[in-house]
């Protein structure tokens, strides 16, 4: 009578529990009635079968949902991983653009500072280089080379570069705010992903539901088979009572008029049966009666186990549903971040375009302009030094020409005196003999030549320009520079050659 999954075990007492059960003694009517009552009571386990059927049906539906949710969740996780990788790639790309621009910006800023420092050093030299007072009109305030440059050009360029750097810092600040927002979104995304329930089933740990479902089907099948054995035992008890005198009345009195599960009616006449067949039947009945309690216990145990297994299936499905809800929230969050990412990319592109179109060319132009101005002002300083050397050279040439002119004037004056004396001697010797009209120039004095400077010499020997002469058109005197001034200028010239 025991099911294949649960071998029969000996019972220490019969189902009524009223007295010790001895299978070897002859079965009385009371024994048969007790077996019948116990077997009929055992058929109450049919409710366990109904519940088992409900459990299997529910488990089958949950098995289908498990397959759908597991596939859906795995697919969404793959999508999430791909989208996160893409967003992380975008974020890294923005960082690369910013890092490249910032590295070049720092390099150009260093070059700009170096160029500006060089220009400032040159301007400092101009500030410290005074104009020699002999080169300026009398009572003129002391001037320096710096007073002769257009400092507004330096100031304007400096202001322009400072404004350019301010624009760059503003653009970079905007990019930083955008990146901070992007990072916050990614951090929230990773936090949300970390809070998604871990998948209870993986490739290495598959879902337990298919195995549990097979166990449930096995338990339901075994319980049904065990219940069929109880039904057969009940039928056997009914048959035994029919073939026992007074058995039908005793059974009816013991159980009342309630219909039997198999629909048997004790009022129906029993079929023919020999005494030997009856004894064999009673032997089987007695043997099965010993197993009724164990079979009932087995059915109930299988029902309890099925209830427990169903709770495991339901717990697993709840986990999958929670995972599904969380992953759907992640997808919505990814959609929002993807929309925001377009704005972050646009900010990065704007920053890069501003760098290429504004900041970088302005800084490069500023460096070139600083270098150009430094070279120009260095050349101005050198030109002034060369001017001092040139003034000294002109003074020397002027002095030499002046000496030559004085020598020539003295020679002309000597020739004039010699010519005048010779003419007087001739007049004395031959003048009485020659008529005046023989040559009109006979009595003319010698032609007098004079060596003089052309133009105005304003300062030399206190000469004043002739009345009405335009002093701007005259030739000014060449200043006399001190020897140390000329030597310093010559040293600067030689140092920069």
Helix/strand structural class: mainly alpha
The average pLDDT value, as a whole number, equals: 85
Residue share in β-strands? under 5%
Distance between the termini: 125 Å
Low-confidence stretches: 2-21, 457-474
- Radius of gyration, in angstroms, nearest whole number: 65 Å
> How many domains comprise the coordinates?
2
What count of helical segments does DSSP give? 8
The total of beta strands comes to: 0
Biggest β-sheet strands, sense, barrel: none
* Secondary structure: helix percent: over 70%
Order of helices and strands: HHHHHHHH
What does the overall shape look like?
rod-shaped
Domain Autophagy protein ATG17-like: 42-434
Subcellular location: Cytoplasm; Preautophagosomal structure membrane
Protein name: Autophagy-related protein 17
Coiled coil: 388-425
């Amino acid at each position: 009578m025991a099911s294949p999954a649960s071998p029969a075990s000996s019972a220490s007492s019969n189902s009524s529990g009223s007295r010790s059960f001895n299978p070897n003694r002859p079965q009385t009517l009371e024994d048969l009635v007790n077996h019948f009552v116990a077997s009929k009571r055992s058929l109450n386990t049919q409710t366990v079968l109904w519940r088992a059927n409900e459990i299997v049906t529910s488990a089958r539906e949950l098995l289908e949902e498990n397959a759908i949710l597991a596939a859906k969740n795995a697919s969404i996780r793959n999508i999430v991983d791909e989208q996160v990788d893409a967003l992380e790639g975008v974020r890294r790309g923005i960082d690369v653009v910013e890092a490249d621009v910032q590295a070049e910006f720092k390099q150009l800023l260093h070059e700009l500072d170096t160029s500006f420092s060089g220009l400032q050093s040159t301007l400092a030299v101009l500030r410290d280089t005074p104009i020699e007072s002999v080169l300026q009109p009398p009572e003129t305030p002391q001037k320096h080379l710096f007073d002769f440059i257009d400092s507004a050009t330096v100031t304007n360029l400096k202001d322009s570069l400072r404004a350019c750097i301010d624009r760059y810092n503003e653009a970079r600040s905007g990019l930083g705010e955008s990146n901070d927002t992007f990072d916050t979104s990614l951090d929230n995304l990773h936090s949300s992903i970390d809070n998604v329930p871990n998948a209870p089933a993986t490739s290495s740990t598959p879902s337990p539901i298919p195995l549990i479902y097979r166990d449930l089907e096995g338990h339901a099948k075994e319980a049904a088979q065990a219940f069929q054995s109880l039904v057969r035992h009940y039928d056997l008890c009914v048959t035994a009572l029919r073939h026992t005198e007074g058995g039908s009345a005793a059974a009816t009195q013991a159980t009342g008029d309630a219909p039997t599960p198999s629909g048997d009616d004790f009022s129906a006449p029993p079929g023919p049966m020999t005494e030997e067949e009856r004894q064999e039947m009673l032997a089987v009945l007695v043997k099965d009666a010993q197993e009724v309690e164990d079979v009932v216990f087995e059915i109930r145990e299988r029902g309890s186990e099925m209830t427990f297994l169903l709770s495991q299936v339901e717990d697993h499905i709840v986990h999958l549903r929670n995972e599904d809800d969380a992953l759907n929230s992640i997808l919505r969050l990814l959609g929002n971040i993807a929309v925001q990412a377009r704005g972050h990319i646009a900010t990065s592109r704007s920053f890069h375009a501003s760098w290429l179109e504004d900041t970088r060319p302005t800084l490069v132009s500023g460096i070139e302009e600083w270098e150009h101005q430094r070279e120009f002002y260095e050349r101005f300083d050198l030109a002034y030094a060369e001017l001092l050397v040139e003034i000294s050279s002109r003074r020397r040439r002027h002095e030499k020409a002046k000496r030559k002119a004085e020598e020539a004037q003295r020679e002309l004056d000597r020739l004039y005196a010699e010519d005048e004396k010779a003419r007087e001697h001739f007049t004395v010797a031959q003048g009485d003999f020659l008529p005046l009209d023989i040559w009109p120039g006979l009595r003319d004095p010698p032609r007098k030549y004079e060596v003089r400077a052309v133009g105005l010499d304003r300062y030399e020997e206190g000469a004043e320009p002739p009345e009405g002469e335009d002093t701007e058109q005259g030739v000014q005197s060449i200043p006399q520079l001190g020897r140390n001034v000329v030597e310093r200028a010559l040293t600067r010239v030689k140092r920069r050659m």
